Amino acid sequence: MFIINNECEKNANNKLKSLRMSLIFFLPPIQKINSEITRRAGVDLYVLRLDLMHPLVNGNKWFKLKYNLLEAKQKNFTRLLTFGGAYSNHIYATAAAGNLFGFRTIGLIRGEERLPLNPTLSFAVQQGMQLVYLNREMYRQRNTAALEEYLQQHFGEVFIIPEGGSNLNGVRGCTEIIADMMAFDHICVACGTATTLAGIALSLHEGQRAIAFPVLKNGAFLAQEIENLLTNYLASGLPSPYSSPASWELVCDYYFGGYAKVNDELLLFSQQFKEEHDVPLDYVYTAKMFYGVMDLLKQGFFRKGNSLLLVHTGGLQGNIGVEERYLRG
């Protein structure tokens, strides 16, 4: 494990000295997956367990929040404001991180208030987050200058983090996920906003390839989002391991009906994978990516001798909500 606190900030990262990070984060283990499918495909399959970094602030959510928190602290903000749905992993992580690092937090939630609160929002409130509900029409304007101006007028001095931490600070944090793991030919990750994929693509070595599995219906549109993030990041002057991104591709066939939608097949796959390999999967993101990878292995998509790293991006807290909605439906 590594410790980020006031004693080691100067050595780990000069910019950490303005942010009290007295948490203990565990270095995410890399777990090998042995199965008949991988043996027949002739590949080595591993999982980067970002879900095990910390019980509350883990997965790619921590990496997308890290530099947003640093900027907020450096600019002397005491309050964070962000956006998300009622079951949002980002809302959950931001509430926890705000509480841990001394920020007050405001969550703008899509839709109307429903009581009693679901487990995600109940946790956010317990962490001190103020919940404000936006109708869907106003929520669609969340990335506009007009709404940002309105929010600043209404809430005062707040540091605004976009939904999912999807900004250049988020990309910067995600460049640190892989951290010189040269032993893998392909890095596979679920894709929602494309921030994580962009950060990973910027951090890979020549010859490595990033493969993203969109969890949204018609996810091919994310290709342009990725290009925009990569272009804007490289033009921003922010630190980048390399001057150009590694090759990447989208595999858009495993969205299972759309964002946050599941079916019996996905639920059964997740249950069996956990039983066989002791790796719990979240239904919204990692389960779909893992299912896609295993299916592609059966099809001979990867070359024999390839080594694959699957990034487990956390989000397990959302499973309760998905199961409740699925069973209720």
What this model shows, in words?
The protein folds into 2 domains: 26-56 and 168-328, Rossmann fold, CATH 3.40.50; 59-165, 3-Layer(aba) Sandwich (Rossmann fold), CATH 3.40.50. It has 13 helices and 12 strands. The protein has helices spanning 9-12, 36-41, 59-74, 89-101, 119-126, 136-139, 145-155, 168-174, 195-203, 222-236, 264-277, 286-298, 319-328, and strands spanning 2-3, 24-25, 30-33, 44-49, 79-84, 104-110, 130-134, 159-161, 186-191, 209-214, 247-250, 307-312. Strands 3-4-12-9-10-11 form a 6-stranded mixed β-sheet. 43% of the residues are buried. Mean pLDDT is 91; it is low at 1-22.
Short description, anyone?
The chain is of the alpha/beta class and 329 residues long. It has helices spanning 9-12, 36-41, 59-74, 89-101, 119-126, 136-139, 145-155, 168-174, 195-203, 222-236, 264-277, 286-298, 319-328; strands spanning 2-3, 24-25, 30-33, 44-49, 79-84, 104-110, 130-134, 159-161, 186-191, 209-214, 247-250, 307-312. The chain is globular, with a radius of gyration of 19 Å.
